[in-house]
Write a structure and sequence with these properties.
By secondary structure, the protein is of the alpha+beta class. It contains 13 helices and ten strands. The protein has two domains: 3-52 and 272-404, no CATH class; 83-259, no CATH class. A six-stranded mixed β-barrel has the order 2-3-8-5-7-6.
Length: 406
C-alpha cells in the first residue's frame, strides 16, 4: 500500500471523528502556544533590560570607597572616605582606557522654588558626567570647567524637577532654586529619559559642579564615588584593571592587602540581570512544555481507543493483504497529523497571544524564529513518540483474532 493511500485513510479517519481529533489536539495547541509566548516574554524582557542598560552607558564604570561586604558586614566607616579629589585627578590624567571620568558627591534635601517644593538630591559632578551617563541638554547649557573651578552656584535639572518646581509654566532657565538654603541658578534642562527597567525615574536629577556640592552643601574633602566610561565596551575590563592598579598605588596598598575601594561595571549588572531573566524564561518554558507532554499522553490515549474501536477493520485489512508496516504507518500518520495540525494552530495562537500581550498589557515581547521551529519540532516528535506504541500494537494484531473481535 503506497503512502498516498495511507495518508488518505488516516485523514478520512480523523475527519470522521472531528471533535475527538480536535480535543486531542488541544493539549498540543496549548503547549505550543504557551512555549512560544513564554519564550517571547522572557526574551523581550531580556532585550528591554539590555537596552535600558545601554541607555545608561553600557561601558560605564562605577568606583565607590570601601571594599566589598564581608559576611554581610560593611567595614569601618572611616574606610568609606578613601576616595579623594586627588585620586580622581590622577585617574583623569593617567588612564589610557578611559574616555570620560567624573567625581560624584550627592546631597539630599528639599528643593524649593517660590511656593513649590520637592524632595530630591543634588549630584555634584563634572561636565564629563553627561557623556558617561548618556545624558543630553535639551535647553540651555551644561556648566563648564570654569564653573567647577569657581564652585559656581549653578545647576542643570531633569524634567521631573521642572514639572514639580515650575508647574506654572515658567521657563526654568535663569531661575533660582534652593536646597538647604543654598541658591542654585538653573542654566540647563536635560532631555527627558523616563523610567528605566528597574522603575527608577531618570529625570529626577539635579546636576551641579562637584566643587559646589563639596564646599557649599556637604563641607567634605572626600568623594562618594567616581564614574568613568571606557573607550569601548570591549575595553571595560582593561579600564577596570588600569583603574585598580592606579588606585592601589595611590592608596599605598601592599600586595597582600585587599582593595579599599569597589569597582563595578554595567557589564556585571547586565550579565546578572540577563542570567536572572534567562533562568526565569527557561523555568516558564519548562512549565509550558509540560502541556506538550500532557498533549502527547492525550494522543496516546486516543490512539489506543482508536485501535480498540477499529480492531475488526484492522483484521479485514490484514486479511486482504495489508502488511504490519502498512497498519503501523496508517496509525502513525494519524498521530503525526494530529500533532502537526495542533502545532500549526498553536503557533498561530502563540503569535496572537504575543501580540495581545504587547498591545494590551504593554510588556516587551520578542518572538524568535528558533522558538517557533523548536516548538513545532517538539510537537511533531511528541506525536511520533506517543503514537508509536499504539500503532505498533495495531500492527502486531493477529488477523483472525482481530476479525473475531466484538
Amino acid at each position: 500500500m503506497n503512502i498516498n493511500n495511507l495518508f488518505k485513510i488516516a485523514l478520512r479517519a480523523l475527519v470522521n471523528n472531528k471533535l475527538r481529533a480536535f480535543l486531542t489536539m488541544l493539549g498540543i495547541i496549548i503547549g505550543v502556544a504557551s512555549v512560544i509566548t513564554m519564550l517571547a516574554i522572557g526574551q523581550g524582557s531580556k532585550l528591554s533590560i539590555q537596552a535600558q542598560i545601554s541607555e545608561m552607558g553600557s561601558n560605564m564604570i562605577m568606583i565607590h570607597p570601601g571594599g566589598d561586604k564581608q559576611g554581610g558586614v560593611r567595614r569601618d566607616p572611616s574606610e568609606m572616605q578613601t576616595l579623594k579629589l586627588e585620586n580622581y585627578e590622577t585617574l583623569r590624567d593617567e588612564c589610557s582606557f578611559v574616555s570620560a571620568i567624573s567625581p560624584e558627591v550627592s546631597s539630599s534635601g528639599q528643593l524649593v522654588r517660590g511656593a513649590n517644593n520637592y524632595p530630591s538630591s543634588v549630584s555634584g559632578v563634572s561636565p564629563d558626567y553627561l557623556e558617561i551617563r548618556q545624558l543630553k541638554v535639551d535647553r540651555g547649557e551644561m556648566f563648564t570647567e570654569a564653573d567647577v573651578q569657581s564652585a559656581a552656584k549653578v545647576c542643570v535639572i531633569g524634567q521631573t524637577i521642572v514639572d514639580n518646581l515650575f508647574s506654572d509654566g515658567d521657563d526654568p532657565i535663569g531661575q533660582v532654586i534652593r536646597i538647604n538654603q543654598i541658591p542654585l541658578r538653573v542654566i540647563g534642562v536635560l532631555k527627558a529619559k523616563g523610567y528605566n527597567s528597574m522603575g527608577m525615574d531618570q529625570d529626577d536629577v539635579v546636576l551641579s559642579p562637584y566643587s559646589t556640592v563639596m564646599k557649599r552643601l556637604l563641607a567634605v574633602t572626600y568623594l562618594q564615588g567616581i564614574f568613568a566610561s571606557a573607550l569601548t565596551e570591549d575595553m571595560t575590563d582593561y579600564a577596570i584593571d588600569e583603574i585598580s592598579t592606579i588606585l592601589r598605588r595611590e592608596h599605598k596598598l601592599q600586595a597582600d592587602e585587599e582593595d579599599d575601594f569597589t569597582i563595578r561595571s554595567q557589564q556585571e549588572l547586565s550579565s546578572m540581570l540577563s542570567s536572572t531573566t534567562g533562568l526565569m524564561t527557561t523555568l516558564l518554558a519548562c512549565i509550558a512544555g509540560i502541556s506538550l507532554v500532557v498533549g502527547g499522553i492525550g494522543i496516546m490515549n486516543i490512539m489506543y481507543v482508536s485501535v480498540t474501536e477499529r480492531t475488526r477493520e484492522i483484521g479485514l485489512r490484514m486479511s486482504v493483504g495489508a502488511r504490519g508496516i502498512d497498519i503501523l504507518s496508517q496509525f502513525l500518520i494519524e498521530a503525526v497529523l494530529i500533532s502537526i495540525t495542533g502545532g500549526l494552530i498553536g503557533v498561530l495562537l502563540g503569535c496572537g497571544a504575543c501580540w495581545v500581550v504587547k498591545t494590551v498589557v504593554h510588556w516587551p515581547v520578542y518572538i524568535q524564529l528558533w522558538s517557533i521551529l523548536l516548538s513545532f519540532a517538539v510537537c511533531t516528535l511528541t506525536g511520533i513518540f506517543f503514537g508509536w506504541y499504539p500503532a505498533k500494537k495495531a500492527a502486531s494484531l493477529d488477523p483472525i483474532e482481530a476479525i473475531r473481535y466484538e
